[in-house]
Design a protein that fits this description.
By secondary structure, the chain is of the alpha/beta class. It has 15 helices and 17 strands. The chain has one domain: Alkaline Phosphatase, subunit A, CATH 3.40.720.10. Helix 1 packs across helix 7 and helix 7 runs parallel beside helix 11.
Length: 469
């Protein structure tokens, strides 16, 4: 059997009565790995993402969407269960949902239980990249009718480039290759998505489409690198004393101690940023192929599209080049929801929202009864009116070796971070006057009143910050 015929047989599933699909909105649920807000639709001056830009143009772009743990595994488990890390008890990678929550009803499982065809293509729960690409490690079988983890060449891709930091402590692989990349996992995930869409036109489907890019290695066709001449890439700019007022726990929590990535030169930093941007544009191209397929199939009017990044990613801010910090660049990630017929489509929202809100939102839009244990809220009111004030605060956390724990809360103006354990400390930033969070106000006595208010918001927790009415 040819590959395309095999995919059609695997992904089509059992037939259903014609007309039943019309009552069930499809869910195209697209994730990008290590995706910060470097997207054209978020106002980035360099990055080219025409397909996500057009998605944002027909949906609602959330400008202040925050993950609950800025690391792949914990963030994805939280989002897909609608529970916060304190409830999932998943604080690191390489842990499956059922290891901690054997009776959980995940977001795709809810749809599957109610008759939708549930398909996974690529990375949805945690998957080591590149180590476990092509495997089903840490996946959740009850979530899917069909789960496909396409293999890919990853760092073995033949092309121009390589490891910018070969022989040094950290690695940064940037590989530009010719062609479209038929041997890349993301290309193969797109093929699965295209077949899912065409094979299920008469049945409601939930498609979890997980792209690996822009996660390292930054592998992309040469034409996407060509979009970003090296002389167009600005080098990161940080004050010389930026880290002087940051608690030691914050430096430990980033895990890799990746300050300046093992001593990258200014030219190497620009090459690293260029490679990240190229892989973002490559991922955007894949998204465009899938969006086109939905429209051409005639299913666009009943397909809800959600695009999200599992957490942010530092590109030199605060001399950091990874995730797992509680600064804005790591804790915030893109979220776009395009649900046909809602009044807010085509607009952006500054409302504070959290990734635990995605599960109850999709259940609400599909007319499903969400589990009572969910710890987020439906975003339908904001999707109808993006100017609406929603939650009063958003929360995230990280853990680190030796009992170090960091918890952050952001409200309309301030970010407060508390570190507990053997290296306790506090951080407070005024994002109105200091949007890049360079000055820790927690150390300045004149800000004691604000500090105490933010402490009380963190202590009050997410229940006290819920949207009212």
């Amino acid at each position: 059997m040819q590959r395309r015929s095999f995919l059609a047989a695997a992904l089509g599933g059992a037939g259903v009565v014609r007309g039943q699909a019309a009552a069930r909105p499809n869910i195209l649920f697209i994730a990008a790995d290590d995706m910060n807000n470097s997207l054209g639709c978020y106002g980035h001056p360099i990055v080219k993402t025409p397909n996500l830009d057009r998605l944002a143009g027909r949906g609602v772009r959330f400008d202040r969407a925050y993950c609950q743990y800025p690391l792949c595994g914990p963030s994805r488990c939280s989002l897909l269960t609608g529970l916060r890390p304190d409830s999932t008890r998943i604080f690191d990678n390489n842990i499956a949902v059922r290891d901690k929550m054997p009776d959980a009803v995940t977001l795709p499982q809810l749809f599957r239980n109610n008759g939708w065809r549930s398909v996974r293509a690529g990375k949805m729960y945690h998957m080591d990249v590149p180590g476990s690409v092509g495997t089903n490690k840490w996946d959740d079988p009850p979530s899917w009718d069909v789960a496909i983890s396409p293999p890919g060449s990853e760092q073995r891709t033949e092309g121009k480039g390589g490891n910018l930091l070969a022989g040094r402590k950290a690695g940064w692989q940037a590989i530009a290759f010719e062609g479209d990349g038929k041997d890349q996992a993301d290309e193969r995930a797109t093929e699965v998505a295209l077949e899912t869409i065409s094979s299920n036109a008469n049945r409601g489907w939930f498609l979890g489409l997980g792209y690996l890019r822009p996660h390292l290695p930054h592998v992309a066709p040469s034409r996407f690198f060509d979009l970003y001449p090296l002389d167009s890439i600005p080098a990161p700019q940080n004050p010389a004393n930026d880290l002087d007022d940051i608690p030691e726990a914050s430096e430990i929590a980033i895990n890799t101690r990746a300050k300046d990535m093992g001593g990258m030169s200014e030219n190497e930093k620009k090459q690293a940023i260029r490679a990240y941007y190229a892989s973002v544009s490559y991922m955007d191209w894949q998204v465009g192929r899938v969006l086109d397929a939905v429209e051409k199939s005639g299913q666009g009017g009943r397909t809800i599209v959600v695009f999200w990044g599992d957490h942010g990613w530092h590109l030199g801010e605060h001399r950091r080049w990874h995730k797992r910090s509680l600064f804005e660049e790591s804790m915030r990630a893109p979220l776009i929801v395009a649900a046909p017929g809602l009044r807010g489509n085509g607009k952006a929202s500054r409302s504070l929202v959290e990734f635990v809100d995605i599960y109850p939102t999709l259940a609400d839009l599909a007319g499903l009864q969400a589990p009572a244990v969910l710890e987020g809220q439906s975003l339908r009111p904001v999707l109808e009116d993006p100017s609406r004030r929603f939650k009063s605060a958003a929360f995230s956390m990280v853990t680190a070796p030796n009992g170090i724990e960091g918890r952050a809360v952001v409200n309309d103006r301030y970010r407060y971070i508390r570190w507990t354990g053997p290296k306790p400390g506090e951080e407070l930033y005024d994002r109105e006057s200091d949007p890049r969070e360079f000055t820790n106000l927690a150390l300045l006595p004149r800000h004691k009143g604000v500090l105490e208010r933010m402490r009380s918001i963190l202590d009050g927790g997410w229940k006290a910050a819920r949207a009212r009415g």
